[in-house]
């Protein structure tokens, strides 16, 4: 993993933001910005041309919104890896991005190291939620009575896996923390999603935070 070059397409309509992100990522030898796009239509076209590993996407874009970009690309490329980086914390912007299929969700005031960590995690196919985004969307993701839980309760180990997963950790990291294999972690995650009738790791993380199973302040 450490020697792999992660190819990134930056999509933002503000030149100063693009230049700042490019300068930050240039400090990491395994991260390479392959191109920039200034609007949603250009983002779709350049993604289709270059097929980068990561699409780093603002939500409010001219010509085609970030959410429309996510839907368009997810419809054509099911394995597209999109990390949303936005300065807008309104529910009507971020929550649809979650539903549309972006893997990561950050605000532009995030720390540089968190952005780099999020890129690496999304590249591995894992979700990454900043604490601010997680707090904002919790109340929107699960409405009271929306989902009925399985009568089969989570085991102690599944709860432990869910607690660490809620911190945005990958399967490998969960395995290291809990001293179990990555394959065992995958099995536990599948069981958790099935028992809670959830569609993704992101929903599982948000569920854990909402129900108090995990805390954003937990230290792992």
What is the residue-mean pLDDT, rounded to a whole number? 82
**What's the N-to-C terminus distance?**
22 Å
* Rg, alpha carbons: 17 Å
How many β-strands, per DSSP?
A: 6
- Fourth-tier CATH superfamily name of the largest domain: Response regulator
By CATH, the architecture of the largest domain is named 3-Layer(aba) Sandwich
Widest beta sheet: strand line-up: 2-1-3-4-5-6
| SSE topology string | EHEHEHEHEHEHHHHH
Query: What's the CATH first level of the largest domain?
Result: Alpha Beta
Describe the protein in words.
With 220 residues, the chain is of the alpha/beta class. The chain folds into two domains: 6-140, Rossmann fold; 144-210, Orthogonal Bundle (Arc Repressor Mutant, subunit A), CATH 1.10.10.10. It is 50% helix and 13% strand. The protein has ten helices and six strands; from the N terminus they run E-H-E-H-E-H-E-H-E-H-E-H-H-H-H-H. The protein has helices at 15-25, 40-50, 66-76, 91-100, 112-123, 131-141, 156-165, 171-178, 182-196, 201-210, and strands spanning 6-11, 31-37, 54-57, 82-86, 104-107, 128-129. Strands 2-1-3-4-5-6 form a six-stranded parallel beta sheet, sandwiched between helices. Strand 4, helix 4 (91-100) and strand 5 (104-107) form a beta-alpha-beta unit. It is globular and about 50 Å long. The protein starts with 5 loop residues before the first strand and ends in a 10-residue tail after the last helix. Mean pLDDT is 82; it is low at 144-149.
């Amino acid at each position: 993993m450490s020697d792999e070059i992660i190819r990134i397409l930056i999509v933002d309509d503000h030149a100063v933001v693009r230049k700042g992100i490019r300068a930050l990522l240039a400090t990491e030898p395994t991260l390479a910005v392959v191109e920039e796009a200034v609007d949603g239509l250009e983002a779709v076209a350049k993604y289709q041309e270059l097929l980068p590993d990561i699409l780093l996407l603002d939500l409010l874009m001219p010509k085609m919104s970030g959410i429309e970009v996510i839907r368009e690309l997810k419809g054509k490329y099911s394995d597209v890896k999109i990390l949303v980086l936005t300065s807008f914390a309104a529910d009507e912007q971020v929550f649809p991005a979650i539903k549309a299929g972006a893997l990561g969700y950050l605000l532009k005031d995030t720390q540089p190291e968190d952005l780099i960590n999020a890129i690496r995690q999304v590249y591995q196919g894992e979700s990454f939620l900043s604490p601010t985004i997680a707090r904002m969307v919790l109340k929107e993701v699960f409405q009271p009575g929306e989902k009925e839980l399985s009568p089969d309760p989570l085991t102690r180990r599944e709860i432990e896996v869910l607690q660490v997963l809620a911190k945005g950790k990958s399967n490998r990291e969960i395995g290291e923390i809990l001293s179990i294999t990555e394959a065992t972690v995958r099995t536990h995650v599948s069981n958790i999603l099935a028992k809670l009738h959830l569609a993704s790791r992101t929903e599982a993380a948000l569920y854990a935070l909402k129900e108090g199973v995990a805390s954003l302040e937990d230290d792992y």
